[in-house]
Amino acid sequence: MSESPEHVPSLDRRSLLGRAAAAGLLAVPAAGLLSACLGSGEDDKPDQATGEKSATNPLGVKEDAPLEVVIFNGGLGTKYATDVHIPSYKKLFPKAEVKYSQTEEISTVLQPRFTSNNPPDMVNNSGSKLMDMGALVQAGQAADLTDLFDAPSLDISGQKVKDTLLPGTIEQGSYDGKPYALNYAYTVFGMWYDSAAFQKNGWTVPKTWAEFTALADKLKAAGITPYAYAGANAAYYQYLVILTSAAKIGGADILKNIDNLEDGAWKNDAVKKAATAWAEIGAKYMNKAHLGQKHTEVQLQHNQGKIAFYPSGSWLENEQAKDTPPTFKYAVAPIPSVTTSDKVPVTGIYAAAGEMYFAASKGKNPQGGKEYLRHMLSKEGAKGFTQLTKVMTVVKGAADGLEISPGFASGNDLAKAAGSDAFSYRWPDWYKKMDDECRSATNELMFQGGTADKFCDRMQKVADDVKKDSSIQKFKR
Amino acid sequence: MRRGKYPFVIGFLIAPVTLYVVFVIYPYIQTFYLATRNWRGVSAQSTPAGMDNFVRLFHDEVFWKAVKHHGILLLVMPLVTIVIALFFAFLLNVGGGTRGGELRGIWGSKVYRVVFFFPQILAVVIIGVIFGRVFSPDDSGLLNGVLGAVGVGPVLFLADPNLALYSIIGVLVWQAVGFYVVLFSAGMASIPKDIYEAALLDGASATSMFFKVTLPLLWDTVQVAWVYLGIAAFDAFAIVQVMSVDQGGPDKATTVLGLEIYRNAITYSQFGYASAMGVALFFLTITFAALTLRVTRRETIEL
Q1: Does B43 lie at the interface with A, CB-CB under 8 angstroms?
Q2: B245/A231 touch (CB, cutoff 8 Å), yes or no
Q3: Is the ipTM reported for this complex over the cut 0.90?
Q4: B197 CB contacts (<8 Å, ≥6 apart)?
Q5: A420, A372, A459: which is closest to A84 by C-alpha?
Q6: Are residues B233 and A99 in contact, defined by beta-carbon separation less than 8 angstroms?
Q7: Which residues of chain A are within 8 Å of residue B272 when distances are taken between CB atoms?
């Protein structure tokens, strides 16, 4: 090839350079293209369908108004929507046409529809390409769900929707005190291990820090990495653990102060103590190579018995289903107590409602969107969801009596043992910038010889920066 | 005849010009406009921000880190790529000495020429994934497997902040070299053989032939290569996005402007600020292109 390209030297060099420069410039206006719909945006709502309110129709849905729902197609699949929730809605409103679609990239598909005032009625805002919920609320795109939570439950007689939910659910989807999003899946976090291997080797799950390090020494001697997380893309599993320890040491208000960007919230003694304790685990009991690996790689090594404890949420068992050998039995333990004077008992856990669903306020049928959520929150709807996805919902007791898997049962036990000692935070969703910084700071702390002081300083600085930044909307809880 | 000329030309131009205006010029104008607004990207409303986005940009450490990385890329990547490509091209074309009075490349040069081009036809993402495995921090990685066998490491190629950017530059160089070997080979093929023969008769060594004959006569092509690679150095988005730890990490040690624009627009929903970065990148690229055009405006050797 290219044996006799006489034309190359004769090509006009300056015009070639000019063209090359122009080609480079093409790369720039990416953000501009995305914004192509921006411009003469008049804030006019389309005609919205409403109907008569009644006992069976407390939200006043127009019975023949079409409803459009968009479901994120990820780890949970979409069967729960097509097989459980949509049939439930259609049963009550047979005349309504339910238009269903699914996507793996919510923001790619829906952001243009929101900017051009043509949103679907109900959106499952989830996945790695979810839309910024805070931005949606700020722009008035999400419907206020107060009337939904005050409405009677679909199939739990005598109770309002809000009475059927696990504590913290409504707050989790509230922005400045008003509910805009329903977080439907209930996830508990802890340290996952192989109960079969633990039983076989006579290892017991640690409750105190001394037990934890003693067991870690034993595991290390046996050639097993005692503790691991994936630094390359899942550092947030670990900062969740550090903050869980902080909340156990100093009480759940520590997390509330962090969420509310209180001055010095990250420099609190409890955060420092937790970071110190975990930095020691990082220095002594972890494998430095995990800093460069992704969660899939580390979870696989966990399944292969090379790692003892792995911090994650209750989706883990389902996520690893096809890589888990039959001898491997997933179980979950709460984070051990760091001090003997911890304010929260060892059974305390981080638990959160996740997997966002919201009704679009500027859609054609916002009441229908909320009604759809009411069907999701019915006992039957929640049970069907759990059966198909192996994930608990925020509906109290909906999973009782379901035999699903050892990991699911263990997660359920963990949640029951915790009782009211379940806490969570919101700041990574509210302020993505802090999330990014905390991932870096956590990796530094756990893998690169960082100190608790440095960790707290870094996080306090980014929190202060966010607080000062007028272009970022602030939230309180 | 003349009267029909303009409609004829316009008829040809209308489609490309329309496409160019709609998909290039108009987004540019919008980017400049958006850079002066605060826009979250989920409704049609935006609020004016004046020059705030640019003031923030000026104080943004991450932005300057990204600019610094472009500076490193701009210095290292073209230099290394061009040196390696020149060396290979020289070997492939004249490195084999003479046989029967004719200059030729080293043995098997025709095969090498094709093999060198392979990386160029692979998609960037595939290369990123492949090299992710090569650089893997445990024994399963190609490099660490070898290093482990001789008792070194593991070296955290992508997770060590001092190494990560250079590991990624290494991949970019690996991919680019093949194309420039072909480009330079083409340039060398057009150098008249009698100049080499004259040099050989005068007893020039391979080294002095390269520096005294090949390089000066190839200078034009080298400059073109420099500009291409320079513009590529302002991009590097895809490879960083695919390969780096924690998207541009560890600790933003490998981030580039393209990635920060993406992060601010898509992840943080701050389209105004991302547009301000886009505007900054626009001016950086334009400055680079203008500078290069000026600096390289010297007379070339006429053959």
Answers
A1: yes
A2: yes
A3: no
A4: B101, B103
A5: A372
A6: no
A7: 471
What's the angle, vertex CA B12, arms to CA B9 and CA B13, rounded to 5?
85
Domain locations in chain B? 63-295
Q: Which chain A residues are within 8 Å of B235, Cβ to Cβ?
A: 24, 27
Chain A touched by B287 (CB under 8 Å): no
A353 — phi, psi (to 5°)? -85, 130
Instruction: Write the DSSP string, A149-161.
Output: HHSBPSSSTT-BG
How many whole angstroms separate alpha carbon B149 and alpha carbon B133?
A: 17
Q: How far apart are CA B71 and CA B230, in angstroms?
A: 10
Rounded CA-CA distance A258/A437 in Å is: 14
| Residue linked to tokens 């937790």 | A274
CATH assignment of B63-295? 1.10.3720.10
User: Is B186–A8 a contact, with Cβ atoms under 8 angstroms apart?
Assistant: yes
d(C-alpha A201, C-alpha A222), whole Å: 10
Asked if A219 and A281 touch (Cβ cutoff 8 Å), the reply is no
pLDDT surpassing 50 at residue A10: no
Angle at A389 between CA A385 and CA A393, to 5 degrees: 50
Rounded to a whole number of angstroms, the distance from the CA of B153 to the nearest CA of chain A is 10
* pTM for the full predicted model: 0.77
Of A247, A245, A203, whose CA–CA distance to A224 is shortest?
A203
Cβ contact A140–B250 (<8 Å): no
Which tokens is A230 given? Answer: 């994936």
Chain A: residue nearest B227 by CA?
A17
Residue A465 to residue A328: CA distance in whole angstroms:
45
pLDDT over threshold 90, residue B81: yes
Q: How do residues A435-448 score in pLDDT, each as one tens digit?
A: 888 988 999 899 88
Nearest CB among B39, B45, B281 relative to A43 is that of B45
Sorted by where each starts, the structural domains of chain A and their CATH numbers stand as: 67-187+353-409 (3.40.190.10), 188-351+426-468 (3.40.190.10)
Please give the share of chain A, as a percent, with pLDDT higher than 90: 32
DSSP letter assigned to residue B2: G
CB pairs under 8 A between A and B: 237
Q: Which of B27, B42, B263 sits opposite A36 (nearest CB)?
A: B27
- A183: which strand partners? A356
B133 touches chain A (CB under 8 A): no
Q: Do B289 and A140 touch (CB under 8 A)?
A: no
Q: Which of residues 161-190 of B touch A (CB under 8 A)?
A: 182-183, 185-187, 189-190
How far apart CA B246 and CA A296 sit, in angstroms, is 14
Residue labelled with tokens 């080609």 = A23
Report pLDDT for A4.
37
| A142 beta partners | A360
pLDDT class of B99 with cuts at 50, 70, 90: low
Tell me, rounded to whole angstroms, the distance of Cα A6 from its chain centroid: 60
Tell me, what's the pLDDT at B96?
Answer: 65
Task: DSSP for A172-199, please give it.
Answer: HTEETTEE--EEEEEEEEEEEEEHHHHH
From CA A168, how far away is CA A420, in angstroms rounded? 10
Nearest to B282 among A18, A28, A443 (CB): A28
Q: Looking at the complex, does the CB of residue B36 fall below 8 Å from at least one CB of chain A?
A: no
Residues of A in contact with B157 (CB under 8 A): 292
Q: Letter for the amino acid at B237?
A: F
Q: What is the DSSP string of A193-249?
A: EEHHHHHHHT-----BHHHHHHHHHHHHHTT-EEE---TTT-HHHHHHHHHHHHHHH
**Type of residue numbered A135:** A
Distance CA B270, CA A180 (A): 21
